[in-house]
């Protein structure tokens, strides 16, 4: 079955990135074009139904779409802004327009991008007129209006005051408005390699999510009422109720477990209907006239999922036995709960002595080591590149390469070959874990 990626952006972005769709014959791309990035909720809602992941044109679109993305539980990423875009754009203006930096007005997400470029090429007299919007990266904060007119006025006033001769903008809507006013301008140049890497990142995230969705999920349920007078009747009655709920979760109720009862499904099926159908547990309260404790566990193996469900159930009992309480413990030992209340997240301490010793040897935290183990499992023990690891850990490629070097230095990873990028760039090394490290996967089962 083809992976389906929804690409959301302006006409300019869609035209540029669609040039590379043919490089990925196993993926279907669906384009969703907007006029302004702060009016895209309807596109996100539509694309969320039709696709596996959304690739947004940039951080502005992601900023304004994040609330709808979170609300609809949609997997999404965006094409990132970087120093290469700045340097390429400045070079383009200089080459084609013959205009000095002092005569260019620039807007971009963070002034740091420009400062880093100028510092790298040892230019002290850079552009005099720069306007940025760094708050756009504060994704967790309340959304504020993005006043396009401020940026249009910034460039236009400078140009007509003859302080500048050209405008370089990172905002497509500003580019269009400046054209209407007759201000010489270009939109920031998006490197072809960056566009291809955006598509590669979206594809990698889709495959990782599908692998994650196939994780085993176990629901452990314990009724709080005192032992019933007719234990057998109560057990059969509970199995009947739980089987009704399991059918909606594409799940199976274990006949071998009692207090707690166990329900087996997969993570994807559970997350798809979690909020809608797990709340039916509260309807079950009315039927059995008792509150319950429910622990949900995710894992790569049946044993892991069962242990995590058992751990989550333990925390429900610590939290409250007076009312129905649900906690979830995932494959990273991240505890979430109580669900449907004031949910909080906790990272449980790793008690695996061997993992702690290995983390100390590599001079990293147990948490980061376990995240790397999860990446290896999700990647199904195939060879991987530094960029793939960087995408999973949500760090820069350079950080991922430093991470990999620690393993290389201890012979836990070896180079298996290289892959040639789609363009004429340098080949990328491919890595895989050594037999020495595989022993830790066995210990960690």
TrEMBL record:
The lineage of its organism: Bacteria, Bacillati, Bacillota, Bacilli, Bacillales. This is Transcriptional regulator.
């Amino acid at each position: 079955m083809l992976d389906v990626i929804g690409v959301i952006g302006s006409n300019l972005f869609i035209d540029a990135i669609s040039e590379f769709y043919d490089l990925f014959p196993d993926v279907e791309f669906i384009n969703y074009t907007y006029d302004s990035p702060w009016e895209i909720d309807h596109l996100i809602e539509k694309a969320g139904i039709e696709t596996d992941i959304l690739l947004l044109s940039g951080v502005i679109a992601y900023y304004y779409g994040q609330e709808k993305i979170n609300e609809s539980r949609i997997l999404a990423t965006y094409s990132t802004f970087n120093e290469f875009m700045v340097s390429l754009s400045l070079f383009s203006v200089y080459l084609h327009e013959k205009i000095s930096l002092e005569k260019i007005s620039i807007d971009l997400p963070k002034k740091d991008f420009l400062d880093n470029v100028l510092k790298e090429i040892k230019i002290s007299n850079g552009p005099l007129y720069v306007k940025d919007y760094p708050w756009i990266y504060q994704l967790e904060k309340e959304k504020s209006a993005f006043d396009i007119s401020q940026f249009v006025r910034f460039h236009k006033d400078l140009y007509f005051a003859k302080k500048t001769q050209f405008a370089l903008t990172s905002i497509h809507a500003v580019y269009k408005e400046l054209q209407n006013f007759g201000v010489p301008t270009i939109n920031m140049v998006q490197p072809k390699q960056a566009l291809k890497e955006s598509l590669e990142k979206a594809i990698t995230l889709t495959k990782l999510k599908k692998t994650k969705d196939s994780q085993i999920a176990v629901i452990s349920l314990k009724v709080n009422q005192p032992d019933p007078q007719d234990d057998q009747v109560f057990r059969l009655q509970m199995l009947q109720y739980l089987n009704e709920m399991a059918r909606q979760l594409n799940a199976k109720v274990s006949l071998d477990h009692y207090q707690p009862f166990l329900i087996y499904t997969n993570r994807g099926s559970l997350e798809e209907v979690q909020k809608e159908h797990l709340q039916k547990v509260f309807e079950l309260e009315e039927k059995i006239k008792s509150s319950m404790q429910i622990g949900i566990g995710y894992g790569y193996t049946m044993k892991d999922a069962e242990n995590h469900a058992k751990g989550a159930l333990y925390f429900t009992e610590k939290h409250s036995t007076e009312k129905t309480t649900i906690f979830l413990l995932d494959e990273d030992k991240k505890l979430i709960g109580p669900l449907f209340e004031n949910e909080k997240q906790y990272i449980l301490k790793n008690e695996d002595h061997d993992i702690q010793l290995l983390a100390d040897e590599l001079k990293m935290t147990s948490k980061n080591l376990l995240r790397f183990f999860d990446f290896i499992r999700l990647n199904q023990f195939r060879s991987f590149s530094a960029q793939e690891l960087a995408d999973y850990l949500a760090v820069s490629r350079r950080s991922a390469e430093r991470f990999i070097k620690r393993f290389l230095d201890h012979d836990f990873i070896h180079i298996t070959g290289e892959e040639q990028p789609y363009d004429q760039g340098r080949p990328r090394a491919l890595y895989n874990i050594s037999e020495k490290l595989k022993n830790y996967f066995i210990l960690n089962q």
